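Support case: user asked for a sample of complex input and structure output to validate their parser. Sending the pair below.
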Amino acid sequence: MARVYNWQLGREMSYWYPESRPTKQFAAVFDTNKCIACQTCTLACKTTWTSGKGQEYMLWNNVETKPYGSYPMAWDLKLLDMLEAGSWNGSTYTGQTIFESAKAGERVLSWRPEGEDYAYPNVGEDDCAGAVDAGMSLSMPHMAWFYYLARICNHCTYPACLASCPRGSIYKRPEDGIVLVDQGRCRGYQECVKGCPYKKVFFNPMTGTSEKCIACYPKMEVGLQPQCFVNCIGKIRMAGYISKPEQARPDNPIDYLVHLRKIALPLYPQYGLEPNVYYIPPIHVPPKFLRQMFGPGVDAAIAAYRNAANDPDLAGLLSLFGATESVMTRWVRRGEEVAGVDDHGTTLVRVPMREPVHVRAGFDKVYQIMRSNCP
Amino acid sequence: MRRHLVVLVAVALVAACQRGPETTPDVVAVLASAIPDRPDDPAWNSAPEHVAKLLLQDLVEPRLMSASTPDVRVRAIAGPTEIAFRLEWTDASKDDLPGNGRFVDACAVQVPQKADPNAPDPQMGQAGKGVQIAYWRADWQATVDGRGTAIQDLYPNATVDHYPFEAASLEKGSDAQRQMASRYAPAEGAGNLRGGPRTSPVEDLVAEGPGSLAPAGGSSARGRGVRTASGWSVVIVRPLPDGLTPTSRTQFAVAVWEGTSQEAGARKMRSGWVGLSMRGTS
Ligand code: SF4
Ligand code: SF4
């Protein structure tokens, strides 16, 4: 194993291959606070990519209710259990990653789902943590909670799927860091299905190969965001490219949210893959639960997010989510307006910080009638 | 005295009839004018048997950590241009349904690309010293034997609302329909036929070390596998390996994957090299 640097862990770690970062790294920010679990993203992906024979059960994008939902079944709990508790010393992870705790004969610490584990994609949907007793809604804070976790492949910097494949059939594109299964080379050993801790590679029994999210690379190549991003009803998603922390640029929306404001956090960073989908954590969930899921930055992230209304730059950038199909590699705020910009400086979209509000009189004098209360 | 002699001859005759097949420390192919294609062909009775002891593949990760199939009984019959191997091994469960977390039974024979007294690494060869592999799979056999290629053939209770390429607006069997179906079957589109309809249960491969397995230029191997009372009996027919003549030998190795033990790819039981020679029928 090689020694590589994982900035999410604040330390070096072991990995199957030497460090080789792409020129650009595909990345995304998901705001969990805005997701309504409508599954439009799931369908957008399904319709576009996985409507074939052998793909029936496959959800490259899925949305699960936490704490009880999971697809495939218990994908996170099983591995957390195997990995055992690890600690953080400030922002440095002192526990073991899945590469460092691989068992003899294995490349990563992993488990293999069975067919049945994929049979209940909506298990635990809308189930609260704890019982909701009568009268509970009358006092704050509510003790019962749940939230929606939308998931795609994380196009990890250190992919476990790639490390697990004994024949090098999975590759990370040097130009954008998107992780793909070479469909001409894969022989369907299912090592990647076992190795990915997020369980985002799927075996297709009809073609006999493994398949996974491709970050809609034909769209990304022409500057358009993937299908699950642009179809998102809640406008929770933004796709772009992330820099290394020391090269972070404030005018790159992903860098700004992840590196500079640190309000978007990786999913289970302790696994050690440097995943590149970053989540703004839900503000109403016990931080103890969230720290296990998103690492030690949770409390600061929630504090910054809660303060967004007094933070014009942050509020401005958040209002660019879902504002255009184009990839906004840059952004700028000009007073009360925020704009998404491309690499050439062309403005792609302009959004007012506050939508204009018109208040009409309750009584319509022309028609001599009370107006109904429509916004 | 004469009575004793008669009894002795009778005992010897009975013992000879009950003796198993001739066993050999290497694989010895008997020369014959016709190559048997089927595992139950009586011609196999004329070939001696080599019992290949299998080892865990525990040289490269991912390894197989607990042993499954202990050995394979190998017989071989050679003709002027081809050689047939019959591999038989014990396997309590028939695994021929591919699926999520489901693995299929399989076997393979391996010979050096070029006969060389200094043989390539037995584990898939090495750079510059390749090996040829003929690989048989139980699910391919099932498809060749007539199993359908719909999802319900793998998961009988599966229900499917709709495949876009089966929309009424697309003419059945038209180019447009085929192209659309292929867009949702990327491996097929890439010419990588790991599943779906097949004409042969055997695939020709070459390798120059672990992880380098690749399809051979053309397809020349064929074969047939059947379930026996205790496991599998598989015939693999391929062109005569380089260097194998009635007066010169080469090497041979075999591998078995046991589906229930989740064996695939590098997780397999395999033999080391054993000699492969030829002799006239006895
Ligand atoms: S999330 Fe899984 S499938 Fe995606 S790159 Fe990471 S390890 Fe591979
Ligand atoms: S489309 Fe958006 S809001 Fe709807 S489930 Fe997906 S991520 Fe959540």
